[in-house]
């Protein structure tokens, strides 16, 4: 992953009654003007570009959260991530208790195309931004960004990432007919049965029928190299 980053009083003798009067005024002032700041809304724009040749990406899912991770390499995928990685459905990610705000793309992000999403969150939450999208002509491959701390971005500042592709490890990369939900096959998406290694890893890529996997419904054009997506995050408003 590559990151680019664009009353003091002097000389006065006070009587006890005067001190009491001053104390009363001081307490009343604090009550009327507490030293607290109201939270304000902070807005971000997230632009995603599909860098692949023939791998449409499922509607981009952006979530802001204050704790936790959407996934971790070497750890089992959550069911909500599994549903996104196998079928492109991010609905359960959006209702996770850790999520503070979210945004979703309007449809498939086609190869070579870009889409910008807006998301807003209150300041002072220690916000982290995560993003996921399935490569739909695969069994369970996805790309994205996990738990990037956006709380330190100043207004007008942006950062850019080039993201790799990950294997959810929940479905074998058989590439067989009926198992690929994208236009190359139109098969089944999410299947609750896990028949792979059951941990997230960097994806090894598509094999395809052109390279000897005879039962594959994919061709050489569906192969992909890392990075597979460009992600730019910009803070646009205090």
UniProtKB/TrEMBL annotation:
Keywords: Signal. PROSITE patterns: PROKAR_LIPOPROTEIN. Residues 1-31 form the signal peptide. This is Spondin domain-containing protein. It comes from Agarivorans gilvus.
